[in-house]
Write a structure and sequence with these properties.
It contains 6 helices and no strands. It has helices spanning 2-28, 33-42, 45-53, 55-114, 122-153, 160-195. Helix 3 runs antiparallel to helix 4.
């Protein structure tokens, strides 16, 4: 319902802007009205510069056009807000999934310390489980890196939404990479202790 109202107000604002630009051109009486009209529609800052230069004749048309532009702001602002929050939520979801995977793996580490194959020392079981976990993490990290490289190669830098999504994925990858480094370091520490 709100989207419909905002869209209707934006359409009204667009029509007001077009009408205001027409009045502005008509009242100021430019020599090339079509070109000036198109330039006003493409670069709305020209409305303000025209108003400053020809205030007495251009004020009605300029104020109508600027009011029309302001009527369009809520619709486009709402759309931009929805896209940004969706990108943030998807990045947070990816981080949450990675954290859950690591938490599950840590629980497996803890449970394997108490169970495991008979006759195998608990330290060896923990080391084997940690190696398994680190190998899984490294495999996932390698796959994710390849995916990001492929997406980077085909990324359209003019598409702001695609760039934001890619940057969110890259940030999630970087945080997962930091966790993976910590787990690799833990494994190296466990191996050095096991050799003693």
């Amino acid at each position: 319902m709100l989207d419909t109202i905002l869209a209707a107000v934006a359409i009204l604002g667009g029509l007001a802007t077009l009408h205001g630009n027409y009045r502005l051109i008509r009242d100021v009486a430019h020599e090339k009205p079509v070109r000036r009209y198109i330039s006003l529609c493409v670069a709305p800052i020209l409305i303000l510069t025209t108003l400053i230069r020809h205030y007495r004749r251009a004020k009605k048309g300029a104020f109508i056009a600027m009011a029309g532009l302001w009527l369009m702001v809520p619709f486009f602002g709402n759309r931009l807000w929805e896209k940004q929050t969706a990108a943030i939520e998807s990045a947070q979801g990816r981080n949450h999934d990675a954290e859950e995977t690591l938490a599950d793996a840590d629980e497996e580490d803890a449970s394997s310390a108490h169970g495991g194959q008979r006759g195998q020392p608990p330290q060896d079981r923990r080391l084997a489980e940690k190696e398994k976990l680190v190998n899984q993490i490294n495999a996932r990290l390698s796959w994710w890196h390849q995916q990001l490289q492929g997406r980077r190669a085909s990324l359209d830098t003019n598409n702001a939404h695609a760039v934001r999504e890619f940057n969110a994925d890259a940030a999630a990858y970087a945080s997962f990479n930091e966790i993976a480094k910590a787990k690799n370091q833990e494994l190296l520490t466990m191996k050095s202790i096991a050799k003693r």
